[in-house]
Design brief:
heterodimer; A: alpha/beta; Rossmann fold; six-stranded mixed beta sheet; four-stranded antiparallel beta sheet; about 30% strand; globular; B: ten-stranded mixed beta sheet; ten-stranded mixed beta sheet; about 25% helix
Chain lengths: ~250, ~450
């Protein structure tokens, strides 16, 4: 079986400072992996590098997505190939209507796959169906992208976009941070509804709590730009109880 | 600017003087007062000469290219060519009341005005001056030293333009469209459209001026529009400037507002190699309300300049001003917005904002919002920004699969949305979208 994504010895830096010191990670189709780690360990850098953010420079290593060289692709090509990043801090874009933007995105993906574009009616139907998944107020999705949304609404909007775009590989970058327990349940339920044997998810989080709702197949600990531990979901519980301190002694 | 500071304008001015004498001898016998108005205007023009970049109001806009070009009077335009050009502009919904001017001349065949309520006039100024001299003379005889040289040049030479009279209490439902087409055959030519809009108490209308020319034609449009809005009148005014990119466009637009008169104006500027707009609103009656909005989208080596003055002369008036600019390539822009609050203008509520988006590192904007407050109980705010497309927003769109050029376009449109969405005439809003979509942005 071909891995969905294969990350080999990935080094990346920002403004000349290396943040990722060699990441190795392989994710098979249908698997849910969680990456945990303290602040500054490189979690968000990893997610941004995978999505193609150009403020990070990949200095070594390679990433294959369904056998293709992911690092050679533009952000939009990656999205068209099936990569989706749920942002930790979704951007507010005044003046750009949420549904207009999402329709443009979906039709870009469809064109890439050689599928016919959706017209306004079909798109609206799709939106109505998907918006229920994350219990997002329909009035919100007709406003400017994320403008004036609460923190929770922004995160729901990310999962809503994911539901519409149906990626094969979704990265959830601290989607749980700032969510109250009700919103966390809604967002998790939205994510779980999208789990299937072809779709893989990489959950990046600080807290074990999210993993009670989105149960991972594997948990990795990122520490100082390296994966220092990998295991099953019990690893998350150990981190919850003991913190990251015990890794420090191990790592040094 | 690379243009020389001191325009080589002596020959041009001498030529304008002799053109005037020719005009005087060939012009049909007009009213005597008008001949005097023209003569005075010419004298003011000769006195001032062309402005240079040493003049405060023209510091960032050199008119040397105009001053050193010999513009002749325009030839008569071909109807078929004009019809094709008109068609290319879209806005077919606006044909119910439409006056078309081709190369400065009123075109009877291309114009159409449906039945109008009693007393409403929508006609050419040269006709109206015969039919309604008592309405026109007082407005056309008030010019003074304070006008720009281009205004004076227009006043000395204007051939025709639109005259709109809205009697008391009449609300015109369909918009009025004034179309100025330049076909630009043979040598550089200048036309001086002159428009006069008189809105009596409690009348209402929406008026759109469109300026357009044949691609690459070299010509100069030097327009003057005056709008008088009496007590309680409501006027929506739009100007869509889509001149040829080889053309020059200078325009002066004056609003005088009486008690509780409401005016909104949109200056939508896309064309011309050099465009300069002087827009003034005089708030003369308490409760008057003015909105001056603008959108300028330029590229290559285009230059666009808006100078606006909002004059709060009496108490309890409101003004809102929002100008947005998108500049690509080596284009340049100027925004100079003055808000004057006179000593008696207590309770003034004035807000002004100019925001610019630079799409290229060679694009340039000079923005200068100015508040002159001489009253103490007022609410005034102003601000200006110059920025680039937000890198994070671009990445966000691209990460959803939207290709870079489309992502840039979507963000640019989004930047302009708070001006373009406020356009109240649906046909204009649609035309604006098309213009922005077609790559003007």
């Amino acid at each position: 079986m071909t891995a969905l994504i294969e990350i080999k010895n990935l080094h990346a830096s920002a403004e000349g400072k290396e943040i990722l010191h060699g990441i190795d990670l392989t994710i098979q189709p249908g698997e849910v992996h969680a990456i945990m780690g303290p602040n500054g360990s490189g979690k968000s850098t990893l997610s941004q590098v995978l999505a193609g953010r150009d403020s990070f420079e990949v200095t070594d290593g390679e990433v294959f997505f369904r056998g293709k060289d992911l690092l050679a692709m533009t952000p939009e090509q990656r999205a068209c190939e099936g990569v989706f990043l749920a942002f930790q801090y979704p951007v507010e874009i005044p003046g750009v209507n949420n549904t207009y933007f999402l329709k443009a995105a979906l039709n870009s993906l469809r064109r890439y796959r050689g599928e016919p574009e959706l017209d306004a009616m079909d798109f609206l139907e799709l939106v109505r169906e998907k918006v229920k998944l994350v219990e997002l107020d329909e009035a919100l999705i007709n406003r400017s992208v994320n403008e004036g949304f609460s923190g929770g609404e922004k995160k729901r909007n990310e999962i809503f976009q994911m539901a519409v775009l149906e990626p094969t590989f979704a990265i959830l970058d601290e989607t749980d941070s700032g969510l109250d327990i009700d919103a966390l349940k809604v967002v998790s339920a939205g994510v779980n509804a999208l789990r299937n044997p072809e779709r893989s998810i990489l959950v990046i989080t600080h807290y074990q709590r999210l993993l009670d709702y989105i149960v991972p197949d594997f948990v990795h600990v990122l520490y100082d730009g390296r994966i220092v531990r990998s295991g099953g979901k019990e690893l998350a519980l150990k981190l919850e109880e003991e913190g990251y301190g015990w890794l420090e002694t191990k790592a040094s | 600017m690379e243009m020389p500071d001191e325009p080589d304008s002596k020959d041009t001015i001498a030529e304008i003087r002799s053109q005037f004498l020719e005009c005087v001898s060939s012009r049909e016998e007009g009213p005597g007062w008008l001949a005097l108005v023209r003569k005075n205007a010419l004298e003011r023009f000769l006195d001032k000469g062309f402005p240079t970049t040493r003049d405060e109001d023209w510091r960032f806009t050199s008119v040397a290219a105009i001053a050193s070009t010999s513009f002749g009077p325009p030839k008569e335009g071909d109807d078929e060519q004009a019809r094709t050009l008109r068609k290319s502009l879209g806005l077919a919904e606006l044909k119910r009341h439409e006056l078309v001017f081709v190369n400065g001349r009123f075109s009877e065949v291309l114009s159409s005005v449906e039945d109008l309520p009693e007393g409403v006039a929508v006609t050419s100024l040269s006709r109206a001056i015969v039919e309604h001299p008592e309405r026109i003379q007082p407005v056309l005889s008030t010019s003074d030293e304070a006008e720009t040289a281009f205004f004076d040049w227009n006043e000395a030479f204007w051939g025709d333009g639109a005259f709109i009279l809205l009697p008391k209490g009449v609300a015109l439902e369909a918009p009025i469209h004034l179309v100025f087409l330049t076909l630009g055959a043979g040598g550089p030519s200048v036309s001086h459209p002159r428009n006069l809009i008189l809105a009596e108490a409690s009348s209402q209308a929406r008026i759109i001026e469109t300026y357009a020319g044949i691609d690459d034609a070299v010509y100069f449009t030097n327009a003057v529009t005056a709008v008088v809005a009496d007590e309680g009148a409501v006027i929506d005014h739009y100007k869509i400037q889509r001149e040829s990119v080889s053309a020059f466009h200078v325009a002066s637009l004056d609003f005088v507002q009486g008690r509780s008169a409401t005016v909104s104006d949109y200056s939508l500027s896309f064309g011309a190699r050099l465009a300069r707009n002087d827009i003034r609103a005089a708030l003369d009656g308490e409760g008057a309300d003015v909105t001056l909005n603008g959108l300028y989208v330029v590229k290559d080596r285009q230059h666009v300049d808006h100078h606006t003055v909002i004059d709060h002369r009496v108490a309890h008036c409101t003004s809102r001003e929002l100008y947005k600019g998108v500049l690509d390539d080596a284009a340049s822009g100027v925004f100079n917005g003055r808000v004057i609050v006179r000593p008696d203008a207590q309770k003034t509520d004035a807000r002004q904002s100019n925001k610019n988006l630079l799409l290229s590192k060679d694009a340039l904007v000079d923005t200068n919002p100015q508040l002159e407050i001489n009253a103490d109980d007022v609410k005034c705010a102003h601000g200006a920004t110059i920025g680039q497309l937000d890198g994070e927003a671009l990445f966000y769109l691209r990460s959803r699969g939207i290709a870079l050029p489309e992502a840039r376009r979507i963000l640019t449109e989004g930047f302009m949305a708070d001006v373009s969405d406020r356009v109240r005439v649906a046909a204009v809003r649609e035309a604006l979208r098309e213009l922005l979509f077609s790559g003007a942005a």
